[in-house]
Amino acid sequence: QKPYDFLIVGAGFFGSICARELTNQGYSCLVVEKRDHIGGNCYTEKRDDIHLHVYGAHIFHTSNEKVWTWINQYAKFNHYTNRPIANYKGELFALPFNMWTFNQLWNVNTPAEAQQIIAEQGKDIQGEPQNLEEQAIKLVGKDIYEKLIKGYTAKQWMKDPKELPKEIIKRLPVRFTFDTNYFNDRYQGIPEGGYTQIFEKLLEGIEVRLGVDYLADKSTFNAMANKVIYTGPIDSYFNYQHGELEYKTTRFDHVKHDYPNHQGVAVMNYTEEEIPYTRIIEHKHFEFNETPSTWISYEYPEPYKADVTEPYYPVNDQVNNDLFQKYRSLANQEEQVFFGGRLGEYKYYDMHQIIDRALTMVNTFTKKSMNDSTTTG
Ligand code: FDA
């Protein structure tokens, strides 16, 4: 008899939701987490009365009623609406591209005038665009491409946009209205008191071991539970036997200033290539906080190196998706181990999508678990 029904690897949304739901259904769970805190990439830390998003800005948005009702059991959301600003060589523009942006760029006031300029500037791209640069110019014209896309994309991908596949920006959010709300979702906001308290509530009464790398001692941990839910990178689980999956990663430099307001907005994108960071986040504006000091974070894209840098964004291009399928086949052969979450499924999921997946998938884990709970790992 093993001491736990489920071993859950990772205390992000996927792992924590599984732990909560399974515990509620009477299963015993042990959660192990590599980092020294719970919350995964949604973790926030209180610094000088400001909730700092340690792994990058996390703005909750969803149109999914089920998810919205579910998350509201664990947090009260404020009315934050994401309205980022682009800074190109000191000139400020509204994002996503909307009538304010066109007015700032070209001094036009009507959608028809803006559409005409975009069409005029995109007409040089004859036939099928061959790369990201051509695709972008075709969609939004030269000015927007040069000022707001080119440098930012080059920094983000660490490549010339001419060398990037056009598929990356098949669609660009362009609005011919004066709506500066970044998201189209019905619900949006930041949890009052930060994200970490959501995870504290989710994991209340559940055994969590922090600072524990499951992969460093896999067989010992496997011997402790009938089933494993693994939310780490799928390629690392299989010891990279088919090669490494690619991720984009970012370094976050958190800096405190002893004055109350640095940039007057939560998210400012720096779109020129010469400035090495892509964004500055000023955390207090997520929560309408009026503290005397402020915390800001610079975001620097960095090359990814497995087991050295953090795997933040899966790169879901053809090569990586094909490689993922090989790992998926291996995963299907693991009868006692379930793979879930952004890293386990190698898919860029937002928080609301992960919550939906965890709430749905956890029931399949229990069904399977009850059928073959006598088998060992
Ligand atoms: P997550 O990565 O959160 O958790 C996995 C956990 O497993 C980690 O804590 C990790 O340490 C642990 N782990 C891995 N390997 C392990 C091992 N071997 N042993 C033990 N533990 C191990 N979404 C959104 O809706 N709005 C937003 O604004 C943003 N912004 C955003 C910014 C940045 C920079 C990123 C990277 C992501 C976002 N997201 C987002 C997405 C959001 O972070 C994501 O949907 C959830 O964190 C996914 O939750 P998971 O539980 O799948 O992974």
TrEMBL record:
It comes from the Bacteria. Its EC number is 5.4.99.9. GO terms for molecular function: UDP-galactopyranose mutase activity. InterPro entries: UDP-GALP_mutase (IPR004379), UDP-GalPyranose_mutase_C (IPR015899). The keyword Cell inner membrane does not apply. NCBIfam families: UDP-GALP_mutase. This is UDP-galactopyranose mutase. Its cofactor is FAD. Residues 147-348 form the UDP-galactopyranose mutase C-terminal domain. The lineage of its organism: Bacteria, Pseudomonadati, Bacteroidota, Cytophagia, Cytophagales. It holds the Pfam family GLF. It comes from Aquirufa echingensis. Belongs to the UDP-galactopyranose/dTDP-fucopyranose mutase family. Gene3D superfamilies: NAD(P)-binding Rossmann-like Domain (3.40.50.720). The gene is glf.
